[in-house]
Amino acid sequence: MRVLRRGDAGPDVAEIRSMLAALELLPPVNGSPGSFDAAVEQAVRAFQQRRGLITDGIVGPATYRALRGSSYHLGSRPLAYLISAPVHGDDVFALQERLTELGFDAGRPDGVFGPQTEQALRTFQRDYGLVVDGICGGGTVRALRQLSPRARGGRPVFLREQEQVRRSGPRLRGKRIVIDPGHGGQDGGVTVGGLREADIAWDLARRLEGRMKATGMEALISRGPDHSPAEADRAAFANDAGADLFLSLHSDQNQSPYAQGVASFHYGTGNGTSSTVGELLAGFIQRELAARTGMLDCRAHPKTWEILRLTRCPAVRVEIGYLTNPDDRRRMSEPAFRDVVAEGILIAVKRLYLLGEGDQPTGTFTFADVLAYELAKAD
After folding, report:
1. DSSP code of 70?
2. Alpha carbons 86 and 89: distance in angstroms, whole number
3. Fewer CB within 10 Å, N side or C side of the chain?
4. Is a pLDDT exceeding 90 seen at residue 101?
């Protein structure tokens, strides 16, 4: 589909207006389909904010998929695992949450009908005497609705994330981390005064990689210096690698030169569904970077971006400074400052695995402390 924004017209815009009207974000469409005007842009922004998407008022692929998916409810269509064209939608999300409540591990509720959802559905069908076909049709939906949940209110999928961290122990050695420098190649990202976001992210990724490997971690970088994979491909790289954590590195921009600071993002829908470990790690990163750099703390936020939603392990995206802010840009251009940022992120990861045991005040734990801890535990 083409990207739609204010001023556009045509059948694509008519479809967008119709979907927004169905969500009661616009008045019902009567007569002329109209154009992509200010009212449509405001409705798109409201939808994006509700869904944890980038709130830009533009209908790109991610927003369009979310709009299409919002038109489905559980039972409105048969659901099955299709390898070539995976099924997306709110009905898939509802199915995943319902299976989880009944005690079947459908994986992270992400609204994508994948192999883990199919396996959980087949197990449910087998256990309750249904036809085991991996298809969520009318009979399966009725059975899902009739049964009382075995688990509710504890976010079972994300409690499993916490348990995996606890069982893996406090040492960093052996942990597999995927570092994802944003953009790359011809896609320079935010570019101001000759400073490219892609180059900053690549340099920072290499600094972080070196520190992580020194502790015994297995650090993998999601792209080469001349490549810019799609977000889904970056997530697939982490999934195929069996990563324990995923860290995506970016810088930000704003029309106002006064916008500044550091922000972190983890998977979450904004209505209670959130990656527990991702949320915890995002908070650690925020506190460490704010304390070590003095940058404005723009806090951690739940989002449903593909890079967070499709990555099966806990994932965090960090926006380090605004390149449109002169002070942030100057600091990000300095190698010594990037060293401070790399150390802060590493310390945040260490804090995650310590789970509060033998920890130190924010901003005081050093790289040397981490190495000494790892060596002491090895003896």
Report:
1. T
2. 10
3. C
4. no
By C-alpha distance, which of 121, 116, 152 is closest to 136?
A: 121
Sign of CA dihedral 177, 183, 184, 190: negative
- 281 φ, ψ (degrees, to nearest 5): -65, -40
H-assigned helices in the chain: 11-22, 38-51, 61-69, 90-101, 115-127, 138-146, 156-168, 197-214, 231-241, 276-293, 306-309, 326-332, 335-354, 367-378
Length of the chain as a residue count: 379
pLDDT value at position 359?
A: 64
Summarize pLDDT for 215-250 with one digit per residue, the tens. Answer: 999 999 999 999 999 999 999 999 999 999 999 999
Residue with tokens 């690549």: 202
Q: b/e map of 96-118 (b: 16 or more CB within 10 Å)?
A: bbbbbbbebebbbbbbbbbebbb
Beta strands at 315-322 and 262-267: parallel, antiparallel or unpaired: antiparallel
Assess contact for 315 and 278: CB atoms under 8 A. yes
Tens digits of per-residue pLDDT, 138-180?
Answer: 999 999 988 866 544 445 666 777 888 888 999 999 999 999 9
217: left (phi over 0), alpha (psi -120 to 50) or beta: beta
Question: Which amino acid type is present at position 200?
Answer: I
Q: What is d(CA 350, CA 340) in angstroms, rounded to the nearest whole number?
A: 15
| Mean pLDDT, residues 260-282 taken together | 87
Helix (H) or strand (E) holding 9: none
Token pair 């992400």 in the structure block, residue: 110
> pTM for the full model?
0.84
